[in-house]
Task: inverse folding
């Protein structure tokens, strides 16, 4: 839609989603295209780091209980 210059309203109707939702997606994409659509195991770098640190904390806590 962004690359082809299609209208948000038309694209939202085709996808059967709210134009407001599509506007948010477009804004997120324009802000940070590489990390704008996280999910399915894909995380933003700061979220990935946070998850790894939380895992390390859990692992350390388990080791100290043993």
Result:
């Amino acid at each position: 839609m962004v690359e082809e210059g299609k209208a948000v309203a038309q694209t939202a109707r085709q996808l059967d989603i709210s134009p407001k939702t599509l506007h948010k997606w477009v804004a997120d994409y324009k802000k940070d295209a590489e990390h704008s659509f996280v999910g399915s195991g894909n995380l933003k770098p700061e979220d990935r780091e946070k998850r790894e640190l939380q895992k390390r904390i859990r692992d350390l806590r388990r080791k100290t209980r043993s």
